[in-house]
Amino acid sequence: MSAPAARRSRQARVVWGDRVVTVGGDAPVRIQSMTNTDTVDAIETAIQIRELAQAGSEMVRITVNTPEAAAAVPYIREQLDRMGENVPLVGDFHYNGHRLLTEFPDCAQALSKYRINPGNVGKGDKRDKQFGQMIEAAARYDKAVRIGVNWGSLDQELLASLMDENNRRAQPWDPRQVMYEALITSAIDSARLAESMGLSGNQIILSCKVSGVQDLISVYRELSRRCDYALHLGLTEAGMATKGTVASTAALAVLLQEGIGDTIRVSLTPQPGEARTQEVVVAGEILQSLGMRMFVPSVTACPGCGRTTSTTFQELAKRIDDHLRAQMPVWRLRYPGVEAMRVAVMGCIVNGPGESKHADIGISLPGNGEAPAAPVFIDGEKAMTLRGDNIAEEFHAIVDQYVQRRYGAAAA
């Protein structure tokens, strides 16, 4: 299997205290997410930030849209620090960011990165001045900046200018191509303006968010070709559940395989009652499936068919997967390398023993017509056979013992 291509980009540093998250250059592709709480509620927001960070988000973005929200940011940071959570915070600014960063210096300092939308920083003569105020704050406090263009809030003056220019062409571009050009031009021109105002180009990350898979691929291929800034990658308004997951995976996998993208966000609309952390899980699965990073032990399980006699293997696979994910915040520190562990939970004799042998630890549960026995394989060798009514509980314990024995020794 060919490895993802390499794109040489500048490297930004998103910092809080001793925590440094590098983005671009030779850094791994980073995962980030965003809260959906009211930022004014500092406690609720801090709790969700911690949940996202524990799930694997290496930066967490929060909405900073009002004076009350800006005033709450330092308290959110304080709560996180008290909890021992040093994940960097990104402030999401639209329309009034120049004023909030100026009037609330404690907010500006508590954030580790600012997200600026060039389409929402002001119009006409005010645009450059207000943009400059935000860049000045970033330079003063040594913060990274994401210049994030979105086709739902594109700079209309720039778009009109490019459309007029297109109309004068002997062979006018397709309107969609003009839209692509407006997105890319807005991002790159804004980045260069920021550099001219004193912000290091290494501290600039660009994004051009669209909601269509093919649109995103086309825009980022061209954006990548025309600049060496670090790139934030993701569909905007990807959607809910299966649709959002599939669309994000389809777009991001193509670009990441081509070496395009330094940090990603999977923007899923949560289903009622669904945890916000699901989008972090999906982002991690995308990177892990591509072999780019490892976050949590993988669980291989068959889909089930007429040979399988019950849902026991499905329930056990889910139980093991949930347990591994829940333990990772602790295991990551205690058992180095455990994230690369492979577990197999199979439902019959056809592929069960083979998949179990290929995994670090695996079990082949009995299928229809098979003897009521479940062989367990450890490091490619049959270690034991489980029988009776407590197979699930026994295998769960065997997995925990395996982690402690194999990865605990590495830590020692």
UniProtKB/TrEMBL annotation:
Protein name: 4-hydroxy-3-methylbut-2-en-1-yl diphosphate synthase (flavodoxin)
Gene behind this protein: ispG
Single GO term (MF): iron ion binding
Biological processes annotated in GO: isopentenyl diphosphate biosynthetic process, methylerythritol 4-phosphate pathway; terpenoid biosynthetic process
Organism (species): Comamonas antarctica
Lineage: Bacteria, Pseudomonadati, Pseudomonadota, Betaproteobacteria, Burkholderiales
Family: Belongs to the IspG family.
The keyword Nuclease belongs to this UniProt entry's keyword annotation: no
Residues of the IspG C-terminal domain: 299-400
UniProt-listed SUPFAM superfamilies: Nitrite and sulphite reductase 4Fe-4S domain-like
InterPro entries: Dihydropteroate_synth-like_sf (IPR011005), IspG_bac (IPR016425), IspG_bac-typ (IPR004588), IspG_C (IPR058579), IspG_TIM (IPR058578), NO2/SO3_Rdtase_4Fe4S_sf (IPR045854)
Pathway this chain belongs to: Isoprenoid biosynthesis; isopentenyl diphosphate biosynthesis via DXP pathway; isopentenyl diphosphate from 1-deoxy-D-xylulose 5-phosphate: step 5/6
Described function: Converts 2C-methyl-D-erythritol 2,4-cyclodiphosphate (ME-2,4cPP) into 1-hydroxy-2-methyl-2-(E)-butenyl 4-diphosphate.
Pfam families attached to this UniProt entry: GcpE, GcpE_C
